[in-house]
Amino acid sequence: MNATPTTSSPRPGPQGGRPSPSGAGAATAGVTLDPLKILQKYKYVLVASVVIGMIIGVIGHKVLMRVAPRYTSQVIFKVNPAETELQRTSVSTVDETEMDRFMGSEVESMKSKLVLSKVVADPRLPQLAPEWASNYMKGGRIDIVDSLDDLKDMVSAGIIPKTFYIRMAVTTSNKTDAAGLVSLVKETYLAELDTRYKRDVVSRRTAIRDSIQAANSQIEELTAKKTRLVREERIDSINSESSTTAGQMNMVNARLVEIQQSLEALEVARLRDESQLNRETGIEYDSTLRAEVELLPMMQTFRQELKSLETALLSLKNQGIQPGHRSYKQITNQIEAHERKIEKAREELLRERFESRLQQTVITIAQLRAQEADLLTQKEQLEEKLTELTRISEEINDIDRLIDTTITRKGSLEQDLTELQASSALSSAQRVSVIEAETVPDLPSFPKIIIMVPAGVLLIVGLTAGVIVAFELLDQRIKSASDIRMIPRLNPLGIVMDASEDPVKIADVATAFNDAPDSVFSEYFRQLRATLAKRMDHAGHKTLLICGVNPGSGATSVSTNLGIACVATGIKTLIIDANMRRPRIAESFGLEDSHPGLSDILTGKSDFAQSVRSIENGPDIIGAGTKEFRQIERLGSQDMRALLAKASAEYDMVLIDVAPAVVAGDAAVLANQCDATALVVRAMSAKRGQVARVARELGECRAEFFGAVVNGVKSAAGGYMRKNIRESFAYLVNPDEKKDKDSKKTDQDKAA
C-alpha cells in the first residue's frame, strides 16, 4: 500500500546525544515535484485550461479574420542545371554545389533592392495592387522609400528542400493585391535575369576572345624565340654534336680510369722499392730483377770463364792429380777468386738495375700525372660543352612544351566560345523558368483554425501549468511523506489517511481501530505499529513520546489508535496523558478526567497503581489527573523520571501524549527523559520550515528521534491514494469478491 511506513536505520540507545536535523532554513532546499501527482491533483484544472484554450483559439481566429487577415500568393520557379547543345546534363551528373550556390544567389536576387525598387516604380502597380498602392500615394505618385521598406517585409523567397524549385511569395491583407504584387515581382525578376544573362554572355564572349588573342600572341612569341635560339646557337646538328661530345667524354673517362689504376700500382711499387733502399740489412732483390741481371752479357762471360776453370779442375782430377798438387791448388784459387768476382759484379749490377728501376718508376709516375692532368682538363671542357648543349636543348624543349600548352588552351577556349554561342541560342539558356504561376488566393494564409486552436491551447495550458508549478514550489505545507523527505535528515515513519475518506464510516477517530478494525484507516495503524515496534524492540526502548507539531496535528488520536493496535498484538501498552493544558486521552476512551492521574502522581497525591485505568480491548491509561494539581514544571522532575522507569518495568510499550511543540516546550522537556520520540504532522497544515525546526529541537534531546508521521493525508494530495484506498477496502472488506475475480482471471488465462 501507499501508506507503508518508511523506517530509518536503528539509532543508539537513550544514552548520549543524537545528530539533529538541520534547521528550518534548509527545509526548502532540494524541492522536487512529482509530475504524475501534479497531473492527478490538477487534472480537472488542466482539462478546463485545454477547453478554454480551444475557445480562445477559435475566438482569436474569428477576430483576426475580421481585423487582420493575411493572404499569400506565390510563384514556383524551376532551376535547370547548366547545359549546352553539345553536352546535355543529366540529373545524375548535376553539380550539387554549383546548383546550391546558383539557387541561393537567385533567391537573394528575387528579394534584392534592385528588383523591388523597379516593382514600386512600375506604372502598372496601382492597377495590379490598388489597395496596397493607395496607402503610399502622395500627390498622385507612390512614395518609393516607404513602399519599398514595406514591400521588403512582404516578399519572401526560399529553396524548397530536396528539390530544384524556388518558392517566391507575397503576403498582404488583400488577396487581389497579393496576386498583383507577386506578378510584378515575378516579371521584374525575370526581366532582370534576362538582362543579367545577356550581359553575362557578352562579357564571357569578350573575355574568351581576349584570351584566344592572348594565346595567339604567346604562340607567335614562343615560335620566334625558338627560331632565334636555333639560329644563334647553330643548333642544326645539336643532337649529333651532343652524341660526339658524349663519346669523347666516355673515352676520356676510360683513359682516366686506366691511368689512375696504373698510377696506383706504380705508387705502390715506388713505395716498396724506396723502403727496400733504406733498409739497414740491405736490399732484398726480387727474382725478376735477379733474372734480368743473370741475362746480362757480362754475367754470362763471367759464368763462361768460371765454367772453363771448373773444366780444367775436373781434367786434373781425371789425371789423378791430387788436391795438394800445386796446379790443383792454383786452379782452385782461380775458381774461388772468379766466384768472388762474379758475386761482386752481380751485386753491383743488381744495385744498378734496382736504382734504375726506381728512377724509371718515378719518371713514369710523373708522365702519368701529366697525362691525368691533361685528361682532367679535357673532361672539364667536355662537361661544360655538354652542359651548354643540354641547357640549349632544354630551353628549346621548354619552348616546345609552352607552345603545345598554349595551343591546347587556345583550343579549349575556342570550344568554350563555340559552346557559349550555342548555349545562348538554346531555349533553355535561361536556367530559371516558371512552373506554377501566381493565382488569387481563396483562403487566407493567416489566421488558420488548425493553428489558432492549438496555439490557444498551448498558451492557456502553458500559463496554467506555470501557475501550478509556481504554486507547488511556493507551497511549503506538508502534504504527504514525500514532503517530509525534502527536509534533510528527517525520515517519514509513515502516513495516516484522512478518516473521512475511508469507505467505512468512522464515528470516532480516536478509537477507530476498535470501532472499525477492518477499515483502511486501521490498516495504516497496523503498518505504523509494525514500524515503531520493530525500532523500539531493536533499540531496547520502552517509552515513546508522541508529539504534534501544532494544535490539530492529531497526536492524541495517533497515540490512542497506536496503543489499541499494540494491545491487539499482545503488547502490554500504557498511554500517559502528559498534555497538562488540553488533556484528551481519557475523554477519547469515554472516561471522566477527574480520576487521579499524572498530576496526582507527580505531586504525591496518588501512587502509580491507583492512577492506572484499564480499558476493555485497549491499553491502560494514566490521565492528566486532577486539574488543581497540574503543574507543568513537574514534567521535568525526578518524580516524572521515576514514573517512566516504573512504567517501563511493568509495560512493554509506554506512549506519552504531550502538548504541541509549537505552542509549548513540554515536548522538549519530556524528550530528555523518554527513550524515543515521534513527531506527528497534520497534512495541509504544518509547513516544512516549522516541521524542520521542531525536528531539530527534538533531535537535540536525549531521546532517539525516530522521524515523523504524516496524519490526515488526503487522496487529492497524493495522486495515487484514492485508487489504493478503494483496492484496500475491496480486499479487506470483500475477500470473497476478490477470490471470485482471481478465479475468473485464472480461468481466462487457462482458456487463452
Would you write up a description of this structure?
About 60% of the residues lie in helices and about 10% in strands. By secondary structure, it is an alpha/beta fold. It has helices at about 35-40, 45-65, 95-110, 115-120, 125-130, 130-135, 145-155, 175-235, 240-275, 285-295, 295-320, 325-425, 450-475, 480-485, 510-515, 520-540, 555-570, 585-590, 600, 610, 640-650, 665-670, 690-700, 715-720, 720-735, 735-750; strands spanning about 70-80, 135-140, 140, 155-160, 165-170, 430-435, 490-495, 545-550, 575, 620, 655-660, 675-680, 705-715. The radius of gyration is 64 Å and the shape is flat. It has 26 helices and 13 strands.
Note the topology.
Layout: H1 35-41, H2 43-67, E1 71-79, H3 96-110, H4 113-120, H5 125-128, H6 130-134, E2 137-138, E3 141-142, H7 144-154, E4 155-159, E5 165-172, H8 175-233, H9 238-277, H10 287-294, H11 297-319, H12 326-424, E6 432-436, H13 449-474, H14 481-485, E7 492-497, H15 512-515, H16 520-539, E8 543-548, H17 555-568, E9 573-577, H18 585-588, H19 598-602, H20 608-611, E10 620-622, H21 638-650, E11 653-658, H22 666-671, E12 676-682, H23 688-699, E13 704-713, H24 715-718, H25 721-733, H26 735-751
Parallel strand pairs: 7-13, 8-11, 8-12, 9-10, 9-11, 12-13
Antiparallel strand pairs: 1-5, 1-6, 2-3, 4-5
